[in-house]
Write a structure and sequence with these properties.
Elements (H helix, E strand, L loop, with lengths): L3 E4 L4 E2 L1 E2 L7 E3 L4 E6 L25 E7 L7 E19 L14 E8 L2 E4 L3 E4 L3 E6 L7 E2 L3 E2 L2 E3 L10 E5 L7 E7 L13 E13 L8 E3 L3 E8 L2 H20 L3 H11 L1 E6 L8 E8 H9 L1
Parallel strand pairs: 1-5, 4-6
Antiparallel strand pairs: 2-6, 3-12, 5-17, 6-16, 7-8, 7-15, 7-17, 8-9, 9-10, 11-14, 11-16, 13-14, 15-18, 18-19, 19-21, 20-21
Length: 303
């Protein structure tokens, strides 16, 4: 029978690494409530706390790792994000010289913002909707560990706003037990995350973890009630977009039985290729996605 577990935000790592001891062991089908820290591990509490120094422990703490019993290389995890409950307060920030508009950002600045129901209070008179999402989710790679600040074929810091309540993230299992980590929740984040900083906030994420045996994945794949979403990342923007597009054309060929030419033509008419994060093109990996309607995939599969 499936169980529900809770994992404290005191159980965090700053890399996804097969050498980390598991913080929790679960059985496939179990649900976990993960307490997550913000990207600065709770050290930013007022407008005067500036991001003018590197965090001494690392970027983007992830709660975990979680060992999934029976998971082996060649399998995949299906992580269903059921709920994201935000803390009452988070922060937005500017780092001098950093981000897509770093050439215009001359000073450091921080703004604490309050969560009021389904709205963010930005100053006295301005409100905008929350849009909770998980920035970091991944499994341990087969080789050396990878910082939770970085994306890759194992997942990691994808900053994909589609990874929110109701989504399911499929991740490759590269090492026994998978060693799943999750964190870096944003209360809201615009595509691009152009300052390097989304609405950084502590949270509780409720996730159900499934194990798919003999289900090899090239890269993370995201499913929502409406869409299938492939992912890409690379320091070069063009290459990052190309990776997500290549994954999508392969998905369409595999699931719809299309030739490359037909899938490629259909992509150009019905698939959106988008940027998730582009805060430092050329210096920091750009993360991307390609998005297709599930209904279109299903119609193609029946044709």
């Amino acid at each position: 029978m499936a169980s529900t577990h809770r994992l404290s935000r005191q159980q965090i790592v700053y890399s996804l690494d097969q050498t980390h001891a598991p913080a929790l062991e679960i059985t496939p089908g179990d649900t976990v409530v993960l307490e997550t820290y913000d990207a600065r591990t709770g050290t930013i509490q007022r407008d005067g706390d500036l991001l003018d120094h590197a965090h001494p422990q690392g970027a983007n703490p992830a709660t975990g790792p979680i060992l999934v019993r029976g998971a082996a290389p060649g399998d995949a995890l299906g992580v269903e994000i059921q709920r994201i409950d935000l803390a009452p307060q988070g922060f937005l920030a500017v780092k001098a010289g950093m981000g897509l508009l770093g050439h215009l950002a001359k000073d450091f600045a921080t703004r604490m913002v309050q969560i009021e129901g389904d709205q963010v209070r930005f100053g006295e008179h301005l409100r905008f909707p929350i849009r909770p999402m998980v920035g970091v989710i991944g499994t341990a790679p087969a080789g050396p560990g990878i910082s939770t600040g970085m994306p890759g074929s194992h997942g990691g810091n994808m900053d994909n706003r589609y990874i929110g309540p109701g989504s399911k993230v499929y991740l490759p299992v590269n090492v026994p037990g998978a060693l799943l980590g999750l964190g870096d929740v944003h209360g809201a984040m615009g595509d691009g995350e152009i300052t390097f900083i989304g609405l950084e906030i502590c949270a509780e994420v409720t996730a159900r973890v499934e194990l798919l045996k003999d289900f090899p994945l090239r890269r993370p794949l995201v499913e929502t009630p409406e869409y299938w979403i492939t992912t890409g990342d690379h320091p070069d923007t063009t290459q990052a977009l190309r990776i997500a597009a290549e994954e999508m054309v392969l998905l369409m060929q595999e699931r719809m039985g299309l030739s490359f030419a037909d899938a490629y033509m259909l992509m150009s008419a019905a698939v959106d290729v988008q940027i998730c994060q582009c805060c430092g093109p050329g210096e920091f990996p750009v993360t991307t996605r390609a998005v297709i309607s599930k209904a279109l995939i299903e119609r193609g599969a029946k044709a």
